[in-house]
Amino acid sequence: MGLAEHTSRVVAQFDFSDEELNRHVDEFLKQANAGLKQDGTSLSQIPSYVTAVPNGTEKGIYLAVDLGGTNFRVCSVSLNGDSTFNLVYNKVAIPKNLMVAKTARDLFAFLAKQIELFLREHHRDHFESAAHRRSTMSFPEGYRDEQIFRLGFTFSFPVQQLGINKGKLIRWTKGFDIPDAVGKDVCKLLQDEIDRLGLPVKVAALVNDTVGTLMARSYTSAGKHRSLLGAIFGTGTNGAYIEKTASITKPIPGEYDKSTGEMVINTEWGSFDNELNVLPSTVWDQTLDRESVNPGIQMYEKRVSGMFLGEIVRLAINDMMKDDEASLFRDTNSSYNDWSTTTNVSPQSGLLSQWGLDTAVLSVAAADNTPELSTIRQELENTLQVYTPSLEDAQAFKAVAGAVVRRAARLAAVAIGAIVLQSGKLDDPEEELIDIGVDGSLVEHYPFFRDMIYEALRAIEGIGPSGADKIRIGIAKDGSGVGAALIALIAQKMEKPGDFLADLRRDIRRRLSLPFENAGMLPLQNHSTPAFCFLCSVSLAPSLLA
Ligand code: ADP
Ligand code: MG
Hints:
Pathway: Carbohydrate degradation; glycolysis; D-glyceraldehyde 3-phosphate and glycerone phosphate from D-glucose: step 1/4. This protein has 546 residues and is α/β, with parallel strands linked by helices.
């Protein structure tokens, strides 16, 4: 069997027929609805406490911070009220020692310090006048007003959300390990450190990046169509959509605004079908899972997202390289190679080590339609140390890579299509358009990824070509900036008029528990306000401490 025939056989293993597609959609709907009824099912369907999406008219300045795997981003977003915004941000790498700090305070104090530095750099006037007012106020109303920045906190680790600005850390991932933070409210951990620095900032909302994506898309997408779904196809995959609260029959602890009858649900769809009721499983999928850090978990994500697609291709290509008959990246002699030389693979090639093939290379392969596939061949040399691959080798690589990503795009359409069907909006004559915001390098950069999703959507029963025409999938960038700011705004609207008094009480108690000189100097390290001003103001409002 020659290389071309061998390649076809590998490619065929990644076929994902229309029939399978529809079976997956049915199963997705089943698992999605199970997750709305109870906890502990494969789709977590986590209530976000966000009960409305923006329409583009929102206004104000908000802060947003994003604690991802490697960086901490602080930004302020000016929402202009006309679907546009201005955004400034600072980004710092999280020091490795803080990822495994002794106590949560070490990490969160660092985060609060970054917020202070950001405010001093970008909002100096605001920062100083708020701090001044706070240390000299005679009226409790002076404490919490428009000068207090509301902050949306995007926290990309698993949390059990308990309110719009409350959520307990379930476990650390991505190399973090600070045991005393587990089980604690991460918003409170951050707020405590912000208060210790006396910053005019309230952690108003805890934000999941998919929910942020949905918010950002709703704010920026033109026209009267609000968005239904925000989805990520980057390192991982996940989606958040608007669900009727009446359909969420499991308990939603804590308070939320019931007036809209809707709530955004974070599906955590990466774990769809961990039981493998329907998901395809080639030998390479099985090897990838077995050798991963979390076997049996995130099974859908392992077939769909950027972190894994390169590895599936690598494993398949590796088997082809080992097969004497397939003879991939091997020439018996130079006459077998159209460039009259022999191919060789460096022992250091990424093709030979786990995670050694970045999904970005698959995009390069898909984009090269030149007759000699010279771009792929150069990429194989430059990034994978495969020297002078032949045209046949490049064709085989392109075909296998294309098949793996095509299956991923069709699987992506399963989740998107199922959520569209779940919403019932296709049958609603009032809804001309169903808007979906997507983010992540895979969907953004892989050529025709969205087209492959549309092709699959047309083949889903209940959607069909006319339904697919009603679905608009657009890129939504900056979910963790604009989206988090918008959720902070929504949270602010939910605040009750007396909330600032509780904040004030807390602040006064905290200050009274500190040594005298610290208490006075807290808000303003470089300010000349004497310490007694603060104490005067406390004595003016003794009833507040009750
Ligand atoms: P994150 O998920 O951390 O927010 P991204 O959205 O940038 O980050 O996704 C990163 C993932 O996308 C990585 O797994 C990477 O391999 C993959 N990726 C990066 N560039 C491309 C590209 N050009 N084409 C396809 N996948 C890519
Ligand atoms: Mg991202």
